[in-house]
Structure formats: C-alpha cells, structure tokens
Design a protein that fits this description.
Length: 230
C-alpha cells in the first residue's frame, strides 16, 4: 500500500513551503492540515516537540519535524532524487542547506519598524545574497538552479525566502537583488517553477499581503490599494 503523508502547516510558513515543494516536485499525494497558530490542538502539540510546523505525519503513525529532516527523508524514500548523486556534491548541497535558517532575515524584512530599520535589515540580506552569488559563480555552469539545470533540495530550501523577498520587493522595490545577477536569475527560475507556486495556497501573494496588512506592520503602507492597483 502507498505511504500516506499528511503535512501539518500554517499557510504562510516558509519551512512548510520547503517541505511542500519537495512533495510537489516528486508528485507525491499528500493531505494538508492547517493548524490554528493561536490555538494549536493537543494532538498537534503531542507530536511537535517545539510546537512548530511543519510536521509530516507518515502513515498516520510516525511524525517527523524540522523541514530539512522532512525534505531529506522524502528524498530518500521517493524518486526522482533531488540531491545530487555524487557524495561530495551532496555534502556540499547539505552544507548550503545548513545555511538556510539565516533566510529568516529575508522573510522578516516585513518586520521593519521604519526606513532606518529596513536599511539595516537590507544590509543583512546583502551579506546573504553576496555569499549565495559567490556560490553560484563557483557552480561552473549557466544554471539556472543552484547546481545547474537540475532542481535540487537546495533550490527547495531557498525558494520560500526568495519568493517572500520578491513579494516585498514588489510592494517596495529595494534595488537590492539586481546587484547579485546570478541570485536574481536563480530567483526568477525558482519563481517560475510550478512546484514552488503549487506548494502554497492559491493567490498566495494576496494572502501574504493580507497578513502583512492585518499585522499592522510599517511596511503594510506600501501595499497598493485596490484602486491604485487598477
Ligand atoms: N527549523 C524549523 C523551523 C520551523 C518554524 O520556525 N516554524 C514556524 C512557523 S513558520 C513555527 O511553527 N513557529 C512556532 C511559533 O510561531 O510559535 C524547520 O525548519 O522546520
């Protein structure tokens, strides 16, 4: 019997997004269970050691947490394998996957308190993009993905943050990613990848904007009103 997968999720979570991209890339059927962030059910708290999403429930029995562990597990048990076949390449990709948590600095641009705070946060993003640009320069091919023409777990790992950066850049152009041409091309390829958009709710950009507006963040002022958008 086929393995059953259920992914416990918040709608905007970039770490859930990472796991869902892997499920989508592999064409695995899965159920999504949205957890109420403000009222997490007991059954969820019992299986999520840090009370966080994502949690992947396998065959209604075992629960896996941490997006990287979930991605690695899915890649081991299902094809096509997204990690490179060569052990050294695979370890190199894992090393870059270990850097992904720093991407919270990208997704949290939305938390900027004011323009000065945003500038400071953008400096941190420049450091990240600079490192990624150097990694892409060393790739030795034209991409467009992290390793080249083949989509990998490393692409699934960075796509969520690069998508959210793009959403922010669309409401308040930062002139930042343009300074890192290889990162920009990579970002564009990830944004165009069907698995990346299929792994979030429909009209996700609108949803992302609604959340930003709802939280009353400073950056919400840049969201165009319906009239301005026409
Ligand atoms: N390192 C974890 C991070 C997961 C994480 O931080 N998830 C957030 C949602 S995006 C969460 O559940 N936070 C719990 C909270 O807000 O209390 C992973 O990669 O899965």
């Amino acid at each position: 019997m086929a393995t059953k997968f259920k992914l416990c999720s918040f709608k905007t979570c970039p770490w859930v997004h990472r796991a869902a991209i892997v499920l989508q890339e592999k064409g695995i059927e899965y159920e999504l269970e949205y957890i109420d962030r403000n009222n997490r059910p007991d059954w969820f708290l019992a299986i999520s050691p840090h009370s966080k999403v994502p949690v992947l429930i396998v065959d209604e029995d075992r629960a896996l947490f941490e997006s990287n562990a979930i991605a690695e597990y899915l890649d081991e048990v299902t094809e096509p394998h997204l990690h490179p076949a060569d052990p050294l390449d695979r370890a190199y990709n894992r090393a870059w996957n270990d850097y992904v948590p720093v991407c919270s600095k990208i997704t949290h641009l939305t938390d900027a308190a004011d323009e000065a705070d945003l500038d400071k946060r953008c400096d941190e993003v420049r450091v990240i993009f600079g490192k990624l640009e150097t990694a892409l320069e060393k790739r030795g091919n034209d991409g467009p993905y992290f390793n080249g023409p083949d989509f990998s777990l490393t692409d699934a790992s960075y796509a969520p943050a690069l998508m959210r950066f793009t959403f922010f850049d669309r409401i308040h152009p930062l002139g930042l990613i343009e300074k890192y041409p290889l990162v920009e091309v990579w970002r564009n390829a990830l944004m165009a990848r069907p698995s990346v958009s299929a792994a979030v709710v429909p009209d996700f950009e609108d949803y992302w904007r609604d959340i930003l507006r709802g939280k009353g963040r400073w950056a919400a002022q840049f969201i165009p009103t319906a009239a301005a958008a026409e």
